[in-house]
């Protein structure tokens, strides 16, 4: 049995200890199977477009799923989460261009920079109520975007980082080889999703759900709400930054659009498409959005109108994401079958 302290001087509440190991082992096996399937795709389909699509899915999927840790699991709607996507892209690109360090070193250093920035920003934002949290995160994102535009000597201004990103081989991996980049992107995606899944299913993840449902009650039973929110804010920033680094490698550069408010809007849109109550909802939404973007932009120049109609359909018609709708439909079918 474990104990949950219900406040200073109160009697501890005993709750049963749940063995999460079978679930964890199953998640690891699913992750390995998913990676094997992704790694076999180049052998089954020789299309470079397919590989490019999966790399983009890896970048935006990590970003959108990390956003759902805030939105779906904690109830924190961030309008500025894209700043960490842009920070990852620019931090990694500048590290490789200016210092010439090994790629793993630049990767870790970029995460360290993201950690420091997210702690500072998060310490301010998570103290605020929901609506103020949303708009203050947006304000910080616009500040970072303005810094990128104005600091031309470092960032290239509105032209972005030019000259490409050096990709020196390491441990037998050459990211200038498109296949190697594809495999690395798939590995980062699977590892990132597995780690976020473990966070969501951990006791900390259920603490976040409690805060989402009733922060006052969570605080009353002894949970440090501010610390829990700050922790998930920082963790989400690290995963979003990883997505930004994948995108920087994919385009061999970084552009101000990566840190603009529209990237956060796309993250919210992805979560609306896929759903926020299921873990894989954001990944489904990522695939849908990229397919929709690629298809609509080829068929018409009025892609904004089409995307707006799709948003209205999900917001007003279904009132939930696709995965939310599917899970609810399956539950209803099982209920009828059981009845």
From TrEMBL:
Transmembrane in keyword set: yes
Cellular compartments annotated: Cell membrane
Transmembrane segment boundaries: 28-45, 57-81, 101-124, 131-151, 179-200, 230-255, 267-292, 299-318
Chief subcellular location: membrane
GO MF annotation terms: branched-chain amino acid transmembrane transporter activity
Keywords linked to the UniProt accession: Cell membrane, Membrane, Transmembrane, Transmembrane helix
Lineage top rank: taxon: Bacteria
Membrane topology: Multi-pass membrane protein
Pfam families reported in the protein's UniProt record: BPD_transp_2
Entry-linked PANTHER family: ABC TRANSPORTER ATP-BINDING PROTEIN (PTHR30482:SF17), HIGH-AFFINITY BRANCHED-CHAIN AMINO ACID TRANSPORT SYSTEM PERMEASE (PTHR30482)
Full protein name: High-affinity branched-chain amino acid transport system permease protein LivH
